[in-house]
Amino acid sequence: MTSILITAGPYQFRATLESSATKTVALFRTLLPYRQKLIHVRWSGEGMWIPLGETDFGLPFENHTAHPAAGQILLYPGGISETEILFCYGGVAFASKMGPLAANHFLTITEGNEKLKALGELVLWEGAQDILFELDGADR
Fold first, then answer.
1. Given CA atoms 134, 138, 139, 140 in this order, what sign does their dihedral have?
2. Nearest alpha-carbon partner for 12 in 94, 131, 104
3. What is the Cα–Cα distance from 15 to 58, expressed in whole angstroms?
4. Is 93 exposed, middle or buried (0-12, 13-18, 19+ CB in 10 A)?
5. What pLDDT does residue 1 have?
6. In which element (H, E) is residue 125 found?
7. Which residues of the chain have a pLDDT value below 50?
């Protein structure tokens, strides 16, 4: 099982790729190491996101949900709203100004869950934080 090391602001997490989102996982692996900025969501609740604008990865919906749990990371492939990565730290009802959305759950935090709320509050009150997704050292 492939492990992903996530460094977000001052925190580190380990996550596993979801086998039920094969196309999304395959695409994400081609992006690694992936660096971006993480900002707080506008509509969805206790989540952070990486806005990707009009990026079209050509992905279908797979393993998709509109109500992800804390520690789940989703990729919305675009369509009704802009393409994005959603990083959940608490209660989320995934939505945009266009209404409810569903996105592909492709990555789940397995270590560091106790730091999710602190990261979410940091992003909410202090603003955008750097985030890096990379293969965990054992999986390189």
1. positive
2. 131
3. 24
4. middle
5. 64
6. helix 116-126
7. 140
Query: CB atoms < 10 A from the CB of 29, how many?
Result: 13
Coil, strand, or helix at residue 71? coil
Q: Give how far the C-alpha of residue 3 lies from the chain's centroid of Cα atoms, to the nearest Å.
A: 15
Question: Over the stretch 74-112, which tens digit does the pLDDT of each residue have?
Answer: 999 999 999 999 999 999 999 998 899 999 999 999 999
CB 89 within 8 A of CB 48: yes
Phi/psi at 88 (nearest 5 deg)? -95, 135
pLDDT averaged over the chain? Answer: 95
Q: What's residue 139's pLDDT?
A: 52
3-state secondary structure 4-46: EEEEECCEEEEEEECCCCHHHHHHHHHHCCEEEEEEECCCCEE
Phi, psi of 104 (to 5 degrees): -80, 115
Rounded CA separation 72/135 (Å): 17
